[in-house]
Amino acid sequence: MADPVHDKVNQAITSDLKENEKNISGRIGIGTSFDVGVRKLYILDKEVQFYFVNGLCDIQYIIELLKELMFLDGTERKKTNVKEQIENRLTHVQVEHVKTIDDAIGQLLAGLIVIFIEGEENAIIIDVRSYPGRGPEEPDTERVVRGSRDGYTENIIENTALTRRRIRDEKLRNEIMRVGKRSKTDICISYIEDIADPSLVSIIKEELKAIDIDGLTMADKVVEEFIVKQGNNPFPVVRYTERPDVAATHILEGHVVVIVDASPSVIIFPTTFFHHVQHAEEYRQAPIVGTFLRWVRFSGMLFSLMILPFWLLMVMNPDLLPAALEFIGPNETTNVPVFVQMLLAELGIELLRMAAIHTPSPLATALGLVAALLIGEIAIEVGLLVPEVILYVALGAIGMFATPSYELSLALKIARIGLLFAVFFFKAPGFIIGLTILVIILASIKTLNVPYLWPFLPFYPLAALDVLIRQGIPVKRKRPSIVKPQDPIKQGSA
Could you tell me where the beta strands, DSSP code E, fall in 143-214? Predict the structure, then answer.
């Protein structure tokens, strides 16, 4: 049976305090949920009710507020305007009023105090939030040798502050909305008003407002799937980062950043394939060193994608090898086909990666020893794998781990396995056709009307040069045209 109290939309707060108490208590379960509390006082002969959620509020603030109001009751009895007297005693920075029960409950469950006063038709909202969480720490997946060591946390207020600290621009906008009928998750859209493309900001807002779901339990990933509608495409179409300096750099270039409460990573819109192969370390070193690091990373990614399928092709077609490369191929033979060995090794590497994630730190060393013995020596001794298979699978895994984007590394792994099947069934034509299909798939992807392989398809020479070579910051005068910035010049005069 439907709850008639819950079904009332935008129910107004009345001057009858008992009626308000009945509506709120029935909807949020006061007396049933131990973490939702109410404190009732009589101030200047009028009843005042304080509603709060334990764990989301700073209890010390609440205690100090109650002390101040109790002192008011003992010193200001001659004055009858209770609401005015209470508001004059509120020392908190953020104080506002709401006129509906829905708004009051929404703010209450977000960690704010809601105050109802007998005879008043609105409620006072005080921000005393103190969300549980950790401090800003350097993210594990985006470490740098030299640079800032702070990172985003699960607290949306802290995250916007970390961005604001780096961009003290009066045009920086942090617009907040709530998504999820039951979770009511806070989502912040960050952009610079006179740089970001207004149509891009409008599209993201409309997509967020159109999300109709109970809750965002997986936080930013759910938001991404609703906005970009990725489908069966394994390649990441948005960029995640936990570094405030990376997010601030993209905002200054004209991108839009979406911050979801309870997630330490933020989403950057729009992005291309080449946004996922950049790393903050490249910009913490000299341009020539950054270029070297970038090309080493590119090489690792190409190795990760192609070395296994190419080696399998050479093993299956030894006549394709020139005389100088005749050493390529297994020196030993086993009863297990090479293709099956590769699949088993790939499966083993993936299982090890998953096991490493779920293994407690004290057992990590033991896991490494077991992996080295089982997949290394013992697998070779029993004839399950040949040494060359382990070598090339390991090189592919190293290239995957060197990819800055974890999502991109997994997509490349899937592409590599697809190429292995193409080579096994169709040999050399399968290798060529498989690579061609992969490029066609990448070229066909568009995110928010942005080509995925820009600036190479379509070709923009200066932007393509910037992808291949890490240029000095003083040389880069313009923002990327792909984000359609309102102000294309980011340094120097136009």
Answer: 172-179, 185-192
Strand ordering across the sheet containing 239-241: 172-179, 185-192, 256-260, 266-269, 239-241
If we measure between CA atoms, which residue out of 411, 402, 412, 413 comes closest to residue 141?
402
Mean pLDDT highest for which of 265-274, 307-316, 400-409? 265-274
Q: Distances in Å between the alpha carbon of 31 and those of 23, 24, 26, 125, 406?
A: 13, 12, 9, 22, 45
The DSSP code for 117 is E
CB within 8 Å of 475: residues ≥ 6 apart: none
Structural tokens at position 22: 């009945």
Mean pLDDT of 205-223: 90
Task: Assess contact for 156 and 188: CB atoms under 8 A.
Answer: yes
Range 382-405 average pLDDT: 84
Check: CB of residue 488 under 8 Å from CB of residue 481: yes
Contact in structure between 164 and 152 (CB atoms under 8 Å): no
Given a contact cutoff of 8 angstroms between Cβ atoms, the answer to whether 259 and 160 are in contact is: yes
Say how far apart CA 109 and CA 88 lie, in whole Å.
Answer: 25
Task: Record the pTM.
Answer: 0.85
Higher pLDDT, 362 or 121: 121
Q: Please report, for residues 145, 146, 251, 298, 408, the alpha-carbon distance to residue 245 in angstroms, rounded to integers and kept in the order given.
A: 15, 13, 10, 23, 21
Spatial contact of 483 and 303, defined as CB atoms under 8 Å apart = no
